[in-house]
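Troubleshooting log. The previous run stalled partway through. Resubmitting the same two chains, unchanged.
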Amino acid sequence: DGGITQSPKYLFRKEGQNVTLSCEQNLNHDAMYWYRQDPGQGLRLIYYSQIVNDFQKGDIAEGYSVSREKKESFPLTVTSAQKNPTAFYLCASSTPDRYTGELFFGEGSRLTVL
Amino acid sequence: GQSLEQPSEVTAVEGAIVQINCTYQTSGFYGLSWYQQHDGGAPTFLSYNALDGLEETGRFSSFLSRSDSYGYLLLQELQMKDSASYFCAVREDSGAGSYQLTFGKGTKLSVIP
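Second attempt completed without errors. Output:
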């Protein structure tokens, strides 16, 4: 079955540590996205990529980094520079077509900083 | 920049009809999407409107007026399982041939017996 796999589902981190969240898709989609969701809030765009080896900052990119070395993979690193990293992180993919509004989401990774 | 406004909470009775409105301000607008998210889960796609008018998919319908920068999601024959958060999202041109999807803060729908 095609879909998006995020791992780990739950992650605990000490302050000052970097952590990398995995996102893999087998939908053959060119575009991939990372969103952050805080309790009772909407989704805020961190980074997105429309093609391999290229990515753009979203609205809240500070303290995060990404890479897109393969079409299937778009890992997100939460660095120690991110002041408030505890949140629910969602990865998504889509065709890059401007005329589609459908994103396919993974099940999310819940990061807690201790 | 961009902004989307939708009510934070709505309560409706099982079997009734509810409308969730969304207004937006953005440049490079291509279309308006709606997503459903149950507590603890991932958002799931409901609909996308690129043109003015009403799109119907089963019990759910979505409307767009580009001239008014306004859209709504209409849920009919409400069921308890429809209790969830609903997000509107705009597909917009972010420059240099890139297109992103920007989400509103969501409307929490509670369906009561």
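Takeaways: The two ends of chain A are 36 Å apart (CA to CA). The mean pLDDT of chain A is 92.
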